[in-house]
Amino acid sequence: MSLLSARRRRAARDHGLVALPPALALACALVTAPAPAAEHGGAEASVEAPMTVARLESILKEVDPEASGGQGRWRLMQDGIPVLVLTSEAHNRMRVIAPVAEVEKLDREALIRMMRANFSSALDVRYAVFEGVVWAAFLHPLDSLRARDLRSALDQVATLVKTTGTTYSSSGLRFGPGYEGKEEEEGGEKGGKEGGEGGAPKNPTD
Q1: Which candidate, 184, 180, 154, places its Cα nearest to that of 59?
Q2: Of 191, 148, 195, the residue nearest 169 (C-alpha)
Q3: Same structural domain, 27 and 81
Q4: Burial of 128 (0-12, 13-18, 19+ CB in 10 A)
Q5: By residue range, what is the domain housing residue 172?
Q6: Closest to 158 in 3D by CA, of 57, 87, 77
Q7: 67 and 117: one domain?
Q8: Measured at the alpha carbon of residue 87, what is the angle toward residues 158 and 57, in degrees to the nearest 5?
Q9: In three state form, how does the secondary structure of the chain look?
Q10: How far does CA 41 lie from the centroid of its chain?
Q11: Residue 37: inside a domain
Q12: 78, 158 Cβ separation under 8 angstroms
């Protein structure tokens, strides 16, 4: 033990402190060191305020000035597709949904094809069934929703409705192991035949 180390241990003992081994002392110093201050204009400065029903409504009006509704429920058009936006401040939830087809008009293979799309090509949107109708649905906590997320959700929901019966996708991106473009294309052609004449299944709101 060096003279310097002995003096440090003695000083620590005199002050009622327990001397730590050098390696442990270094680890403690790294853990307790203050984090560097965020630079002006950094990520912290770009954080959006929590989403509210009023702010969400204003964004919907920007997307479609003719959007109708209120008090947490709106109907608007996105690329020619009727879309519903529902919110619940009490449960901090929101969803964007659009009808795709009546369940009774789809066979088992078409429904399985939709489940496959949920895994790879539907991305942030999902096929879901409610009251005899297949819906394209996007769900998210309300307060952490960003404006760009809402706009993307509207676009993806509308795109998934449009591509049902062909590519079953909410965008041009595919995400999932084992995906093959040829297989997806063949599945789309089959889905088009199953859905009825002209491609995609008939929208129940038509």
Answers
A1: 154
A2: 191
A3: no
A4: middle
A5: 53-195
A6: 77
A7: yes
A8: 75
A9: CCHHHHHHHHHHHHCCCCCCCHHHHHHHHHHHCCCCCCCCCCHHHHCCCCCCHHHHHHHHHHHCCCCEEECCEEEEEECCEEEEEEEECCCCEEEEEEEEEEHHHCCHHHHHHHHHHHHHCCCCCEEEEECCEEEEEEEEECCCCCHHHHHHHHHHHHHHHHHCCCCCCCCCCCCCCCCCHHHHHHHHHHHHHHHCCCCCCCCCCC
A10: 26
A11: no
A12: yes
Same domain, 98 and 13: no
Residue 150 CB contacts under 8 Å (≥ 6 apart), including other chains:
51, 56, 59, 60, 96
Q: Specify if 80 maps to a domain.
A: yes
3: Cβ–Cβ under 8 A, 6 or more apart, which residues?
A: none
Distances (CA, A) of 108 to 101, 156, 185, 193: 14, 24, 18, 13
Same domain? For 15 and 96 the reply is no
Say what the pTM is: 0.66
Nearest one of 114, 180, 123 to 152, comparing CA atoms = 123
Q: Which residues pair with 176 in a beta bridge?
A: none
Residues 27 and 121 in one domain: no
Question: pLDDT tens digits for 69-112?
Answer: 999 999 999 999 999 999 999 999 999 999 999 999 999 999 99
Q: Report d(CA 104, CA 170) in Å as an integer.
A: 23
Residues 6+ apart with CB under 8 A from 52: 89, 142, 143
Is 13 or 192 the better-scoring residue by pLDDT? Answer: 13
